[in-house]
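ok so for the tutorial part 2 we go from a plain amino acid sequence to predicted structure tokens. step 1 is just haveing the sequence, like this:
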Amino acid sequence: MTPVMDRLVAAVSRAKSGSPLTQVTVIVPGHGAGRDVLHHLARTHALANTDVLTLPQAIARLAGPALAPRQALPYPLLEAAVQRVLAEAPGVFAKVADEPVTARALASASWELTSIADSSMQSPTPLVDDLLRVHRTATEPLTSTYYLQHEAFTAALDRLDALGAIIVYQPVAHRGAEDALLEELRRRGETVEAEADTEIDPTQIIHTSDADDEVRAVVRLVRKHLAAGVPGHRIGIFYGTDDPYLPLLHEHLTAGHVVYTGPACHILVDRPVGRALLGLLALDHDTMPRRDLFTLLAEGALRRPELDDEQISQRRLELLTRDVEPIVGGDDWERLTRVGAHEKHHGLAAAVHSYVRRLQADLRAVVDAPNWATVAENLNALLDNYFRTPRTETAAADLAIVRADCLGIAHMDGIAPPPTAARVLDAVTVRLSAHRGNHGTSGGGVTIASFAAGRGRDLDVSIVMGAAEGIVPAPRRDDPLLPPELTGITARDHMERQRLGFIGAVGAGRSERIVTFPRGHLRGGAEKVPSRWLLPAMAQLAGQDVNVVNWQQATQISPQIIGVESFDVAAQRADARIGVSAASATEWRLRELAAVPANRRRGALDDPIINLGMHMRSDRLNGRFTRFNGNLSSVREIITTFDEPVSPTGLELWVRSPYRFFLEHILRLRELSDPDEIAQIDALTKGNLVHAILERYVRDTIDGAELNLTRLQLVAQDVLDEAHADSPGWLEQLWAKDRGMILRDLEEWYTHDRTDHDDGWEPTHVEQTFGGDGHEVSLTLGENSIRFRGQVDRIDRHRGGRIRVTDYKTGGGGKYKGLTDATPTDSGLRFQLPVYGLFARTLGPDVETRYWFVSSKGKFSAVGYPVTDDVIATLVDDMNLVHRSIRAGHFPPKIEAIHWYLPVIDLLGRAGLQRAWAALESVEELSDYVQKYGG
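step 2 — the prediction. this is what the tokens look like for a chain of 935 residues:
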């Protein structure tokens, strides 16, 4: 059988009739096929005065001069015209005319109709009838400046003589309206087609567990053929659908260090410049939501606010608007103007406020512009003022494309309806989305493309992916806007085009034709079966009947039909039929490790990162107390916890969770709160507010003010109003409920405080700090000592001389029932009361301490005891273990048994840490801890 490319050369020779300079035009099915034809004709010296054109290129060459000065109608202007029709006369689309998706759907249908000269049909549905009205109304005013596709087809038909001798190579019409032109080309010239165009003839079929393993197998195949000497540009990979194959091919070919060319995985709207502009236009310009704006700034394409000619870091922006002045959006931004000139963050706040308000004004200028020319002008000003100078060639090219597209929006005047925020966003989106782009240099590596691009290719190796039912052929839903009676294209026509594309892609390989398909779906679901178009080829290779039920059993013994069981099996056991090379460096490592017994794998690879990971995993699984499990004894000299005064509540945290103490007190990690997520006051904030109210009220009482419920209520109103102003995310209805509960609890608290006063107690100190200048509190532990710091909510003195220390609690008292004078630390769990009592004993000998539960939840009860020498002795005993363990650097991964969210712990994996702790419970270094506090 003569190769089809050789028959093409013979056809060109016949067309030239012995005169090498005779004009010949070869019509090819695609750009890739055109490149192959050019190369082959050049090698056979048949290229002189021979043009190789795709059908759209031929149409543009013939129709452009004939229809000048009119230009081809760009799709964005057609969509703009459709939007105008919907705005002025929406018809049956009235209820959805304002939705951007409506204009897009109608414009897409109208674009298809521009290729049909007579866009009409008998007895259309009301939907189709109104679509035809919208199409005619939108296109008629444009035809004086722009020509439609069907006009180009007609003009091209009239000028076919300009092509000289015509050869149609493996013809295919991608659109129904092209059929007539293609048929006329075939009638006038010679057609060269593959001799077998009805069935596929693969040399190998591979099926895998899913699409990801399928792509890995393909990369192994490619590396095998490259190693055998096949040039990369002579290998083609063709797939049925972009999702999931295009991103997977980009990922795995890159990991396998294979040079390739094909459609870009990420188009312009996915890359930083395009994404940033669309993000700015999509912002709510009235509220300027902080989270959305700062997300855009974090991506790097936009200039951040500047202070002293330097861009402010993202970290400082987040700290300012989360901690210093919490902001959600809208009027919250004005809070930045309240930061006084004497305050640390004044310059930062002023710079951010100026930037946000300036950006807000500039965005409003874009969407509120009186016409599209002004929109274009203001968009380019936005690019000048807010976009960073590109640092890469890709970013520079993207910015240039975006700028040109924004300038082109000026042509919408007189065509589109007046600008609005939604229309501006849609106009920019349509233009930027049209730029798909390509990866690599054409012809400079392995080709990746869809099935349709495989027809007419001349390759040594063709690999066709996704040949499973449901992918090939792809299901097609009927379009109610474009019925077959209108377009002339039936479901059968669509199916036939897919079949010819599939056959053409498989047949593109001269020596190797490989078809692959997945048995399952990456996102789960039912098992997949081979495509109906692949089953006959499987039967031929297997030598017996193959159907969708028995295909696995019937093909098991065929050497040309290969099943890849899983990624794990494929990575460890190479199949020479696919290729012994690994698909990536990771697979090489896995293969090397698999060759070594499990107990000797640590150190098998010359890779310090992997070896450390294996060391960590082994230590955690086998219960070895090392640095990977919280044993920092090797660096204990740099642990400075006890060099300064320590908080008793911090040491309580070490008892509950030594690992969390390490994260929060040694590494000083903390969660940065997000005002957008705080819809309601949390328990900690509620407690802080009650503390603040009682502090102000009691302080005034100490200064001589009378006990008075009205005064307490006024203080509470002030504190609660300030809190509400500082918490923009709180929902009003929830805040009203919580505020009422706080005020009711304070009224109840007042009656109890009044009773205390009548019983002889007078407050003497409020929010009294110790551990600083002049108030040192320490505890001697043999040769060592611990210095403490803290802040006592309240200290009262009785008329009889006794001193009482009070720590307010706004929750329930259930977990504090273990506190008595016999168990003052609740068996080593709580140190706050005895340490506060230790401080109070500097004020007098007769001291008692208590937790006072100042809420209806806590029933205004109190838990406490007198601070005696026995209490201090118990504190010393308990502190010995804590002090010794922290100084030794012991922070095992014990996690508190709590149900609420712990950001850092949950990020690290609570379940994994719990398993690691369970494996450590018999470690000698931790025996004292386990004996006292349990596992």
